[in-house]
Every structure is written in C-alpha cells, then in structure tokens.
Amino acid sequence: MNDSNGVNNSNDVHDSNGVHDDLLTTKIALGFDQLDADGDGRLTERDHVLMGESSARALGHSPGSEAERRIIDAYVGIWRDLHQPTVGGADAISRDEFIASTLTLADDQEAAAATVGRLAEIFLSVADANGDGTVDPDEFQAFHHAHFPHLGRARADTAFRHLDRNGDGTLSHDEFVGAIVEYWTSRDPEAPGNWWTGEYPSRAG
Fold first, then answer.
1. I want to staple 120 with a disulfide (CB 3.0 to 4.6 A). Which of 30, 50, 85, 180 is the partner?
2. Rounded to an integer, what is the distance from CA 121 to the centroid of its chain?
3. Does the global pTM surpass 0.70?
C-alpha cells in the first residue's frame, strides 16, 4: 500500500524468520555509518557539520560562502531538532541507540513523517541545487557522493534508476522524499528506496 508520497507502507508483512526486520536493521545500520562522518562510532553535531561541508563542496560551493553556511546550518538543524532529542539532549548517539530508536518508526507513520520525512525535505533542499523542485542525475550524483564518498558514479546512477519510478529522468519531490522514507522505515523487500545507496542492502558493503 502506498501513501500520498508514493511510499510503500507494506510494513505489516513479515515472514516467520524475521527476514524483513533484518533488512530494515541492515539499512539503518548502513545509514548510521553514512551519518557518522568522522567514523568514531557515535553520531554527534560534529558529524553533521562535516556532512554539511562535504555536501557543499560536492555541490560546488566555496568554503566560507553563504551557500556553504546555509547547507551546514541545515545539517546542524537535523542534529539539534531530529537526532539529539531522541537521547534526551545528550552530546552523542551510539550506533545501537540509533538503530533501536529508528526501528520504532517503522510502526509509527506519524512519527516517521515528523522525523524521517522532515529529514528528507531538508536533504531535498540541499540536493536540488538549481531550485526547480526536482533532482536531476548530476545533482543526485553530487549529493550521493557527499554522503558516500567511497562510492563511484556507477552506484549513484544505479540508485537513481531505481528511485526514478516513472522513468522521466528526474526525481520529483515525491520520488526523492519517498525513497528516503522507505530506506529508513520500510520493511518491504521490493521498496525502491532500498536502493538508496546504489546497491541492495543485503549485498552492500
């Protein structure tokens, strides 16, 4: 079943071995590794500053520019408004805390929209460099590289093909936001958002 953003919400389908829960846990764990920009095993405000700097650089903005500051502020806002409150205002979130907290969103669509949905909107505002409301392949590759610097253009192109549901060559608001929400909250093994990193999670590494 899809919601108004085209997100597949088939989260009530489980097999007896919990394979779908394993898929979601794998995605969240990989996502944490993406957000943990300094690789110290904790999520902090510093990680979000580093992600902002990386995104600005990938999108061609000069260090110290107003455009860079806007993007860094957006990422710091993600930390302060979305992530930090889940641990009572602590200065860091461990990997296990992050996974446990995010898993609960799969069964609470309202909370998912308020957190992951908001995260996706912020990411869209960063990725949509020309402000036309869509993300083209070059914009997506720049954004993808900022988050997955060790992955190449081929992985970004693979992700884009899976996320471009109508095949029109751009990611609409609903396609982009829906993919992020699916990646973080959907247990459906067929959800296009599973391909956010450019490789199916069970094979990602």
1. 180
2. 10
3. yes
Closest CA to 29 of 162, 180, 205: 205
CB 178 within 8 A of CB 193: yes
Residues 102-147: tens digit of each pLDDT: 999 999 989 888 899 999 999 999 999 899 999 999 999 999 988 8
Q: Are strands 93-94 and 42-43 parallel, antiparallel or unpaired?
A: antiparallel
Residues constituting the chain: 205
Which residues are paired to 43 by β-bridges?
Answer: 93
Phi, psi of 186, rounded to the nearest 5 degrees: -90, 135
For residue 53, the tally of other CB atoms under 10 A from its CB is 18
Task: Residue 62: count other Cβ atoms within 10 Å of its Cβ.
Answer: 10
Please, are residues 8 and 188 in contact by the beta-carbon 8 Å criterion? yes
What the block records as the tokens of 2 is 């899809």
